[in-house]
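Dear Dr. L.,

I hope this message finds you well. Following up on our conversation about the binding site, I have prepared a predicted three-dimensional model of the protein together with C2E. For your records, I am including the exact sequence and ligand specification that went into the calculation, followed by the structure tokens. Please feel free to forward this to your student if that is useful.
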Amino acid sequence: MTKTPAPAEPPSLTGDALTREVLARSYSQSHEAVLVSDAANRIVAVNAAFTRLTGYAAADVIGRNPSLLSSGHAGPEFYARMWHALAEDGFWEGEIWDKRRDGTQYPKWLTISVIRDADGGVAFYVANFTDISASKEAADRLAALAYHDALTGLPNRLALDAQLTQTLRICEREGRQLALLLIDLDNFKNVNDSLGHHIGDELLKGVGQRLRECVRASDLVARLGGDEFVVVLPEIDGPLTAARVAGKLQSSLADCYLVADHVLYATPSIGIALFPVDGLDGGTLLRNADSAMYHAKNAGRNNHQFYTARMNEAAGERLRMENALRQAIANISPTSNEFLLHFQPQLDLASGRVLALEALLRWHNPTFGNVPPNRFIGIAEETGLIQPLGDWVLWETCRLVRQMRDRGIAEVRVAINISAQQLRNENLLLQVRGALDCYELAPGDIELEVTENTAMQNPEVNLSILDQLAAMGISLAIDDFGTGYSSLAYLKHLPIQRLKLDRSFVSDIETDSNDAAICAATIALGHNLGLELVAEGVETEAQRDFLARLGCDCLQGYLFSRPLPFDDIVAYLRAQPVSE
Ligand code: C2E
Ligand code: MG
Ligand code: MG
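The resulting structure of the complex is given below.
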């Protein structure tokens, strides 16, 4: 309760007639209820606003103790503090719950001043008060908004911080353990990007609801934002309980969701940090659960991982790799370069001729050695470094295609992988035009590959850039097809020539009837749309024959050649009977 100092000039009853008149009017006409009691705290006067507010007429209360208004909410210590302040300061104010004549209770803001007589003794107590239920309700509503996530109705980050701090204090006092589970949905971005935010929102609501249903009422479930949720288990015996709950959450979330005719999946990656071993405060626990969650992602998603100190070493390693990548890109020069392109052939299934090559980036770093693209492309994309690196790949490919042509290798087209960020940028059109002009190449000499998920992001922007590339005569392929949520309707609008069937389907084509069916359907679907089908990752003759039976057009994989350095690919192409 706030306590403000007493007014400098306490009102006095010994003023002149005019003052009395003013006081009397302001008393009777005031919108604030006024109650005057004498030194023995018997009510001597109340105004009209008092009657309106409490339902008591003056005659009902005169001579009685103001405690008849009390709701009984406040205990004796509360009143003791109030009387102490009145005796010491001559003034008290604060919030108090009272009862109206009809029994209803309401919060009021009460101010009491002591009026003293000429000798300094208490003459009267003057109490003013207003009903604050309306403003209290508004404040409560605001607080609810500030502390709740509007989409799922779960507590938000602010509420989590506050409740976690309080819960941790109790755990510390009572020597209890606590588990904090950080949950991130796998591939949620795909749903949002390909089906739209309203579908994504519905999915998040469903996830929030399932999380709430999986845990006890005393456990805390909050949404941090985006597709990140937190579950706090304040009453666990040990890590096993946390693992059991994580497993339960996983299997509940893994069930499909039906949203507006779409069957969606949202498996979780869960990171777990324990109090007190992994951190004593909410911030540390969240940070460490986050590291563990990244490990769950790297371990193939749809699993849970406990935090261990080693994980931060891994985060340090990632940071060092990011710095090394930054350095390597800054130092790109024609003479020394940590980057290199390898080329892998794509063969026409019917004739066995090499139709195209795919340029694949390689990075050799003095500290990290040979780093596979699956490790550094992601870092380059997260840090924006993919822009300069992607530009380099484009220019270097064109430079090498020129060399191939000069060495007598005609016609073979070279495919270049393009990341989502590059596609968002008009810069790509300028770079493509510039590199082709510089090395005197035709648009048909190169092809751009964008992954299915990239093509589905920002459909409007992408479509415009893809259309402009197509208008330039550049052919386009959808890479890793079958891993995203493309809709057939959308695919029809893309100015593409080729679909590259993802390696994961090809590898199990003989053993997994599902994968075989997906391959067959994709090939048929692609052909219906007038597209050429390229199968990636063909490693065995059995796979080749299977794909041949399905009518696939083009094959790429270790069966024919691994990606090779420039001189080796030139030798490989020269050794091909038809491409000489
Ligand atoms: P991708 O574009 O789907 O490339 C095909 C990947 O499959 C290559 O991996 C290739 O070496 C591998 N591969 C080809 N045939 C076989 C096979 O028979 N068996 C197996 N197991 N693998 C095979 P790589 O070179 O490690 O590249 C991985 C990914 O990194 C690429 O997948 C692509 O998404 C990305 N990437 C590579 N170079 C670039 C680049 O210059 N720019 C961008 N944005 N991404 C790149
Ligand atoms: Mg590719
Ligand atoms: Mg691919």
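In brief: Residues 344, 360-361, 372-374, 377, 390, 393, 417-419, 449, 479-480, 503, 536-539, 556-558, 563 surround C2E (ligand 1) (CB under 6 Å).

With kind regards,
A. P.
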